[in-house]
Amino acid sequence: MTISTTPLPVGIEAEAPPIQAKASRFWAWMILIIGGLYFLVPLGATFWWSLRATEGTLGFEAYRRLFDDANFWPSFTESVINAIAAIFLSLLIIVPTAYWVTLKLPRLRPVVEFITLLPFVIPAVVLVFSLLRLYGRPPLLLTATYDSSRVLLVCAYATLSFPYMFRSVDNGLRAMDVRSLTEAAQSLGAGWPTILRRVIFPNLRVAVLSGALLTFAIVIGELTIALFLAQQTFGPYMANLTRSKVYEPSAMAIVAFAITWAAMGMIALISRSRKRR
Amino acid sequence: MGGAKRPPLTRFGSWLGVLPFFLFSGMFLIAPAIVLAYRSLESPDGTLTLDNYRALTDANVLAAYGMSIRLSLLTALVGGVFGFLLAWAVSMGGLGRSTRSGLSTFSGVAANFAGVPLAAAFVFTLGRVGVITSLFEWMGVDLYDTGFSLYSFWGLAVVYLYFQFPLMVLIILPAIDGLKQDWREAAENLGATPGQYWRRVAFPVLLPSILGTMILLFGNAFGAHATAYALTGGSIPLATLLIGQQISGDVLNNPGLGYAVAMGMVFIMALCIVIYSVLQRRSERWLG
After folding, report:
1. What is the ipTM, given to two decimal places?
2. Could you say which of A64, A88, A119 is where a domain stops?
3. Cβ <8 Å between B3 and A191
4. Mean pLDDT value across residues B58-73
5. Does residue B243 lie within any of the structural domains?
6. How many other β-carbons are positioned within 10 Å of the β-carbon of residue A258?
7. Residue A185's CATH number
8. Which pLDDT does position A155 carry in this prediction?
9. Which terminus of chain A has a smaller tally of CB atoms within 10 A, N or C?
């Protein structure tokens, strides 16, 4: 993966017949403009609405009302905590597994890959449906209280992150010499917990970050699972808001977009600085 | 953390390292799936039966599946074609590097900008008082009089496309980059026009990747629940919304049928992922 990123020779475009190149550039711009409009018009429209909460003037009243809403910060903080818990849970499970599969049990790789792909196969609504059927009644009652349902929610979020987390950790492990690092640490007398904690984790920090950010972006506004587990997180809060208020939902959509943008922008920055190295 | 005692690397020891993973996914992925499969084969009195699957021909179920499949097909096709054109435009159209990296970052955002905020954004754009709706009104056309509604099949399709074609761009852009410069040069040296190069070389090489990704888009739309729920609240029949309603109460008047409907979805999703990975593997033979 790291090889064969030869820079494109510069003069190539100039060699093509000029008329055809011009025509294809015209069409390329047309497509890009149509796509750009489709991307930007809904955002622009939403932003425009979000500025009109005060009659007659443009201003940030809708945002002020949104942030002053009694349920905004509690649900948002709860979702942030859930997301962070899910990310750590997922890391605790995926990093040792990916490490072991790389180092000791390569024959298990297809099985692990298959399982980490399952969240793509089981839609969220089907997952929560079957979780409720499995843990919603004795003997495995996990939905009895709000907090126990919350544990179930975090576990479900951790599984949702498996496809992304496993792939990013696996790529990170491929980029370093796992075997030599392990042997070097062992020869210095380190045990397995120390090796994972002091050698493998620190080397994976960058690879893990993109998986973590993606998980964050997906989980922070997640609606389906939280809704059916009756959790008062950000997703159900936003769904309620769109039903009960006029201007606040527009401010909310812009805020949610900014969060997604921040997470994705950070991933892009990380991968760019990695390529440079 | 001295780590003084090195654990013996027996077979058991090495399995211990993957045990948490198997325990956890067993509890929260595999066991739920098994429960689903088992209950879908169970009759009300606890014997094994295929009746639940036979009952999938129920009018409500068929309507929901039909709508889901049509919506997914349409958005996969349109999103796939347009996403491919966009990827082509930034990678081959000579628009420069910054447009390209801008598009891929934006696609990453849009592909993950689903659910409630997306539904809200479109309400402000194409809802009854949305900006575009008002714009049409100002021009003398009442969109909602022409039969269009954001809360219908076509409205939902427009909304779904917002995350569908960015996903296409994200997956197909690396594939287009994988086309070898040598092939283009070889084709040009043999006297091929750029059009011929695309039709005879690049497109056939990319085809498995394009088809595979479109199938992935199909699954992506088919399994989507939050966006449709936030937009319509369940007023239009979709397979995911039907399962959501079945969670809240037995709307199908048959608990077993709920499991069969869910299993049917898992089956369709699994089919999508399998076809996608087969086609992707095929295209990896050519694209590095």
Report:
1. 0.89
2. A64
3. yes
4. 95
5. no
6. 11
7. 1.10.3720.10
8. 96
9. C
